[in-house]
Amino acid sequence: MDSNKRPGDMVRITTPELAQAFIDEQAAAVREQIGDKKVLLALSGGVDSSVVAALLIKAIGKQLICVHVNHGLMRKGESEQVIDVFKNQLDANLVYVDATDRFLGKLVDVEEPEAKRKIIGAEFIRVFEEEARKVGNEVSFLAQGTIYPDILESQDGVKAHHNVGGLPDDLQFELCEPVKLLYKDEVRVVGRKLGLPESMVERQPFPGPGLGVRCLGAITRDRLEALREADAIVREEIDNAGLTIWQYFAVVPDFRATGVREGKRAYDWPCIIRCINTVDVMTAEVPELDWALLKRITARITAEVPRICRVCYDLTPKPVGTVEWE
Ligand SMILES: Nc1ncnc2c1ncn2[C@@H]1O[C@H](COP(=O)(O)OP(=O)(O)OP(=O)(O)O)[C@@H](O)[C@H]1O
């Protein structure tokens, strides 16, 4: 049987009971596969790699080595949450790499969006490879948060399904992909049953290059910091309003606008709020946010975030605008 094909009679995991049965079954299969060997996992804090980490911790405990790379482009509190959940609560074998200076150093004066994406992707592979080499001799397996849509897309030729592609030939591990036959909604049900916090299980999609593609043009530390704070306010206010929106975040462009603050001229950045609803991400609509909510977000960002003097709401559906600005 093709192990990359979901059996036609596989029941959709929709309840905690079904999730528990899946966890028990996979934990046993993982123990069987891994034996007393060690497993390496790149842990982003996103849903897929977090669920795989929690499942493997349950199955093999400290035989799992998780590597979390903070590239300096994470959202506010995200790397801290990875440390809190996995190191403090689940007692994982977690390697935390603060590579902020490396990434931001490489990105100085790089304006072109595709160049930024390439630099961030290549640097991620380099950092992960370095960490993999440190433990390479004792590790035999690489765990990945591959899920079923990744496999279907790779069969369609849309993209390669290996989540952490690009490791050199001499660093090839056997793969361990315990959620590869699950759809995203099932991964969330399993994650919840494994005790991951709701904010992690329901985390909105976030591009690999992180805030790097929302801090438009050449990234500077001060503007990146302003973006991180503004983005946290947008997410907090929309969460508090109890709205169900697919993706909502902030963008800070690399030009400035005139304003007035405490009676003095300000010449600071604008902040753009981007919200979209979509079913398949091929097209997207912009939700009609309540005016009072938009005003509250604007008031908070302009009062709380240094160097932001103006807030705009992006009304552009996809097409013609893409979800991300870069
Ligand atoms: N900052 C990071 N630190 C460690 N690993 C990372 C990081 N960013 C990405 N990865 C690894 O690369 C994989 C692919 O990242 P991508 O951004 O495409 O997320 P994804 O497929 O949605 O998975 P996830 O939900 O786990 O983030 C992740 O599953 C994780 O293994």
Question: What do these coordinates show?
Answer:
- The chain is α/β, with parallel strands linked by helices and about 325 residues long.
- The model has no long low-confidence stretch (mean pLDDT about 95).
- Helix 1 crosses helix 7 (about 185-195), helix 2 crosses helix 7 and helix 4 runs antiparallel to helix 5.
- The strands form 2 sheets. The chain has a 5-stranded parallel beta sheet, sandwiched between helices. Strands 6, 7, 8 and 9 form a 4-stranded mixed beta sheet that branches.
- The chain folds into 2 domains: about 15-200, 3-Layer(aba) Sandwich (Rossmann fold), CATH 3.40.50.620; about 215-315, GMP Synthetase, Chain A, domain 3 (2-Layer Sandwich), CATH 3.30.300.
- It has helices at about 15-35, 45-60, 80-90, 100-105, 115-135, 150-155, 185-195, 200, 220-240, 290-305, and strands at about 40, 65-70, 95-100, 140-145, 175, 245-250, 255-260, 265-275, 310-315.
- The site of adenosine-5'-triphosphate has 15 residues, from helix 2 and strand 2.
- Adenosine-5'-triphosphate binds near residues 42, 46, 69 and 208.
Question: Shape from CA axes?
Answer: globular
- Total helical elements: 10
The side-by-side strand order for the widest beta sheet comes to 3-2-1-4-5
Q: Could you tell me which ligands this complex binds, including any ions or cofactors?
A: adenosine-5'-triphosphate
Radius of gyration: 21 Å
Name the CATH superfamily classification of the largest domain. HUPs
Amino-to-carboxy terminus distance: 42 Å
CATH top-level class of the largest domain: Alpha Beta
CATH topology of the largest domain: Rossmann fold
Oligomeric state of the chains present here: single chain
In the CATH hierarchy, what is the architecture of the largest domain at level 2? 3-Layer(aba) Sandwich
* Number of separate domains: 2
What is the percent of helical residues?
40-55%
* Low-confidence parts: none
Helix/sheet category: alpha/beta
Mean pLDDT: 94
Number of strands: 9
Strand % is 15-25%
- Helices and strands, in N-to-C order? HEHEHEHHEHEHHHEEEHE
Q: For the report, how would you describe the main beta sheet? A: 5 strands, parallel
Binding site for ATP: 44-50
Enzyme class: ligase
Keywords: ATP-binding, Glutamine amidotransferase, GMP biosynthesis, Ligase, Nucleotide-binding, Purine biosynthesis
GO molecular function: ATP binding; GMP synthase activity
